[in-house]
From TrEMBL:
Function: Mitochondrial intermembrane chaperone that participates in the import and insertion of some multi-pass transmembrane proteins into the mitochondrial inner membrane. Also required for the transfer of beta-barrel precursors from the TOM complex to the sorting and assembly machinery (SAM complex) of the outer membrane. Acts as a chaperone-like protein that protects the hydrophobic precursors from aggregation and guide them through the mitochondrial intermembrane space.
Lineage: Eukaryota, Fungi, Dikarya, Basidiomycota, Ustilaginomycotina
One Pfam family hit: zf-Tim10_DDP
Family note: Belongs to the small Tim family.
Membrane topology recorded in Swiss-Prot or TrEMBL: Peripheral membrane protein
GO biological process: protein transport
Subcellular location(s) per record: Mitochondrion inner membrane
Name the record gives this protein: Mitochondrial import inner membrane translocase subunit
C-alpha cells in the first residue's frame, strides 16, 4: 500500500502535481513578460491614434523593439543554459 499525504495524493502524484504547477507558473511568467514588453514597445513606438495602418516609422520601431526583446531573451537563455552545462 502506498503512503498518502493528508491531501490524499501519493508521492508520485504529488511530484506530478508539483511539476505541473511549476510549468504553469513558468508559462504565466513568460506571458506576463511578453505583455509587459508589448506595452513598453507600444508606448515607445506608437505615437498616433490607432487606425488601419501604422504611421511612418512606427512599424519599423515595433519590429526593432521586438527583435531586441528576442535577442535579449535568447542571450539570457543561452547564458543560463551554459552555466547549467558548466555546473553539470
Amino acid at each position: 500500500m502506498s503512503a498518502q499525504s493528508k491531501s490524499g495524493l501519493n508521492e508520485a502524484d504529488q511530484k506530478e502535481l508539483h511539476s505541473f504547477l511549476e510549468t504553469k507558473q513558468a508559462e504565466a511568467r513568460i506571458q506576463s513578460t511578453i505583455h509587459d514588453h508589448t506595452d513598453r514597445c507600444w508606448d515607445k513606438c506608437v505615437k498616433s491614434a490607432p487606425g488601419t495602418s501604422f504611421a511612418r516609422g512606427e512599424e519599423a520601431c515595433l519590429a526593432n523593439c521586438v527583435d531586441r526583446f528576442l535577442d535579449t531573451s535568447i542571450f539570457i537563455v543561452n547564458k543560463v543554459y551554459g552555466k547549467a552545462q558548466a555546473g553539470a
